[in-house]
Each structure stands twice: as C-alpha cells, then as structure tokens.
Amino acid sequence: MSDVPAGPEAGAAEIASLLERIQAGDRDAYMTIIRLYQKKVFVMAYSILRDREDALDAVQETFLRLYQKAGMYRAGSSFQGWLLQMAKNISIDHYRKHRKKRREWETTKPLDEIPVAAEPARDGDSAASDLRAAFARSVETLAERQRMVFVMRHYNELQFHEISEAMKISIGTAKSLHFKAVQNLRKRLAPVLGIEP
To answer: What is the CATH number that goes with domain 124-197?
Structure first.
C-alpha cells in the first residue's frame, strides 16, 4: 500500500482513499491527513481565536472530529473547504465558550506570531521585521469577516470558491470582502511604507 506524499495538497482520489482507510481504522492514513492539513487548520483557528494554545486545542478537536466523521465527507466537494468549515465552527464555539475568560485575559497577539506565516527575521533584518509586525497589526484591525477571508486567501492559499464554501457565503461576497480587506490594509500601511493611500 503506497503512502500519499505529504505535499501541499492531495488530489481528490488520494483524499477519498485516505478517508476510506481512516474509516477502516488505518492510523497511517489519519496521520497523513493531519500532516497535509494541520498548518492550514491552525491558521484558520488562530485567525478566529488569536491565542496559540486555544488554536492548538481547536486543531486537536478538528482532527478528532474528522476521525469521527470521515464518512460524512461528500466526494466531489472540496475536502479542504469541508475541513476548514469544521475548524471554523469548532473555533467559533470555543471562542463563545471562553468569551468571559477572554475578556478578562485578552492580550493582542499579532498574526506574526503564527509560526507558519513568515520566516523569523535574521539579525540585522529589523526593517523587514518591523514591516511584518506593522502588517500583522493591520490585519488584526480588519473586521472579522474581512480578516477571515484575507487569512484564508493569503495564509491558507485558498481559492475564492473554497473560501465561499468554508464560510457559507457567495463567491461574490468572498471577493468583495477580500477587496475591502486589501483596501483597508493599503490605507493602514501607507504611512509605514511612506506612500499615498
């Protein structure tokens, strides 16, 4: 039985095969799916929860839920969209349950703390590091839906049809939210970049 390579994304036939094997109790197939998608699920969870530990909890719960519901995936639809929709719902539930605690302990953790978002700056690369920090702070200020679309498009590298499926919005709405996010980021970053907004 050949193992599926842990590349950036698996094809539909490979995913279907992995899910069948997971339902049969194949641990290797389960670990392969986790390797393929854990970074993308983490970025989705972090974009909502903005806390590393909470995001890791949501990732764990998402893959546990995947193990339980592998048979519910509809072949032909985007597996990544389905998985990220699950991660989004779990993250939102987690956020609601812990809202009171979050109000008491809230700290602003910028997106540049996401380990997969960017390579750490080398010594002497402070300008690039400052720009990354300013960019991350600007992303944090976006309205929630704009931020989620932007994160899915640029951190998770999803297509607009996958974003619309994951967020249960039309492709037009996804594009519109992305456009607004980019416009808002451009305005906020103009002073840092020394350009006219």
So the answer is: 1.10.10.10
DSSP 96: H
Among candidate residues 4, 63, 9, the one with its CA nearest the CA of residue 36:
9
**Helices (DSSP H) in 98-125: which residue ranges?**
99-105
Burial of 136 by CB count in 10 Å (0-12 exposed, 13-18 middle, 19+ buried)?
middle
For the chain, the domains span: 1-106, 124-197
3-state per-residue secondary structure call for 8-29:
CCCCHHHHHHHHHHHHCCCHHH
Q: Determine the Cα–Cα distance for residues 139 and 151; give it in Å rounded to an integer.
A: 9
Taking Cα atoms as reference points, which of 156, 166, 8, 177 lies closest to residue 91? 166
Q: 40: helix, coil or strand?
A: helix
User: Which residues of the chain, if any, have pLDDT below 50?
Assistant: 1-8, 104-109, 113-124
| CATH number for the segment(s) 1-106 | 1.10.1740.10
Sole residue written with tokens 């909470």: 54
Nearest to 151 by CA among 128, 167, 133: 167
Q: pLDDT digit string (tens) for 171-192? A: 999 999 999 988 888 888 777 6
